[in-house]
Structures
1.
Amino acid sequence: MEKIPEASKRRLTLLAALLASFKEEKITSIQMQKMAGIDRSIIRKDISLIGFKGGVSNGYKADELLAAIREALKLPLPEQKRFCCIAGLGKLGAALMQCGIFDESPFKIVAGFDSRVNRTEVLSADFPLYPAAKMETVIPESKIEFAILAVEDDQARLMAERLATSGVKGIVNFTGQVLEVPAGVVVENVSPLLALNNICAKAN
């Protein structure tokens, strides 16, 4: 199998999310184009990159395509839990703790951290909350692989540094800062401001 470009990985990850909730047996590239907003010729090319040969004249078998994408990108199944933490327990971090979006996913939040000790004492969660000073100990002990960064912008770079030093493999960056992290640590920037700028660029 040839190396899959990053842009194709992003599109295939989106397709996997759509297929996971798709209820019909077969799906066509036209349906995927409507659902994902991606041109069907690009979808077909991306699918060819993972070596999937299960296409039929009237579409793809949805469950087989989903399984092929998951295998090619090493996406975990819902029962294959990957441990995560939230760094920053302000309004955004607290909302992420309580919203329940991780409940049916493979990603399990097992710790929360904040540089303000009082935040860890006044908040309640289904997992332990710690002062940021304990990150370097708790993250490796708890086998935490990924972190959600939700601190104030002026703390973002320092906290990202500490997360990387503590052993996380990837950071979902909700802050407005561009992060510099060591090789081997992946950053996904999901700032709402960045997303809005991307929408503006596409809409104009």
Note: The chain has a mean pLDDT of 92.
2.
Amino acid sequence: MKQLIGNTFFEGERPLFATNDIRLENVRFYPGESAVKECNNVEAYKCEFMSKYPFWHNDNTLIEECRFTVYSRAAIWYSKHICMMNTLVEAPKMFREIDGLYLENVKFTSAAECCWNCRNLELCNVEVKCGDYIFMNGSNIEIDGFDLQGNYSFQDAKNVVIRNARLDSKDAFWNSENITVYDSVIDGEYLGWHSRNLHLINCKISGTQPLCYAKNLVMENCTMTPDADLCFEYSTLHAEINSPVTSIKNPNTGYISVESVGEIILDGNCRNPGTCKIEVTKKTCTA
């Protein structure tokens, strides 16, 4: 049975430090630090956080219909089993070193450096703005319904599945491993460089110089916009592209099926000339 704490406020340092088995309702946390630190089995409902580092070193936390203001930066670190639903997050650096995180209907308005070194994450219908470097070094992540604006996303991430997403993100998936993206739009230059086992299915790709230095890249039923030029340099891949491609440059090995291609560049820097087969599927008829 949880102790109910409602319709009140706290301020200063550590007002509820090491308080377990509590439910917070309509509680406001004014400036201070570490308000709910070292607490287990906490529920927070319709609460507002204006203090720094409110949830650190916690286990089993449920957060519903809350607001984390810009003053509650670095709110949840070094914790396990966090569930957050229907919540507005205005603060950066929200999650670090979390094992077991579930987010549903959560909106981030300033998500820089969020979700670093986190593992075992599930996201459903999440919107992120200003999310530079989100999910860096993350692992075991499942996402369905995701709108991201933020560069350098998923850097060094491993074992990620993304569905129904729109990623406005330069340098996404750099040095990542075992990433699969379904039914999504990815808009941003230098996509997926130095990735390993990146698998794109039914995706639309925009931005210059995508998917270079990639190993074991697979593309199924994808399309590319005209600004996605100089593709696949030094990559090993198997790609099915159902659109024109502006230019392909020095792919390493593998197979590319493409509707049409404006230019194939195999210059003196090509490492394995002729070992990547490029098949054009839409032939141009001439009189």
Note: The two ends are 82 Å apart (CA to CA).
3.
Amino acid sequence: MLDWLIYAVAILLFFLTHSIPVRPAIKSRIVAHLGGPSFTLAYSALSIAALTMVIIAANRAPFVELWPWAPWQNHVTLIAMAAAVLIASLAIGRPNALSFGGRNNDLFDPRAAGIVGWVRHPLLAALLLWSLGHLVPNGNLAHLILFGIFASFSALGKRIIDKRNQRLLGIDIWQQLANTKREITVTKSGVIRVFFGVVVYLLLIRYHSAIIGVTPLP
């Protein structure tokens, strides 16, 4: 019972640490004090720490099997994670006035939106792929709750962010920005991002068992 309580508290703290610092009024004060880059670094570190805490709590919760594990399920996770890492690597730090995780958003051009032209909220899409990909081989109650919550959060978050930006930017400006052009162009920065994405993906596979305690390979 105590392990379930700790798990519930960890989930609550995760969402509090992710929602409170990014509220416009609170974020503006923190950015004014720390600066934009320092806020991004601190928020990223806090997010990783909170996610680690939730995963550890989920692993320590009582095991209640819902479906058995099979080797093919790991292939689903590997494919989903490859797509998630690729999307994230093409999105992090590039202008995106339509979602979070962007940088220099005032330079966002809907006619040359890159990955945002295909996926308006790329980091939420990556989170959804991560959640669903990990849900398949983890057929127990604690992980169903964990990955189910993240999948629901990423799916509902798109609508929440769209409504917030429509209110902040005005519906006309938002519609102009949201009218992104879908195109596939090969650029030097894009190739570099894909390269680093592949490196990160291989590192995740290499050190997954050491950090999480479970090998991702079948």
Note: The longest helix spans residues 141-169.
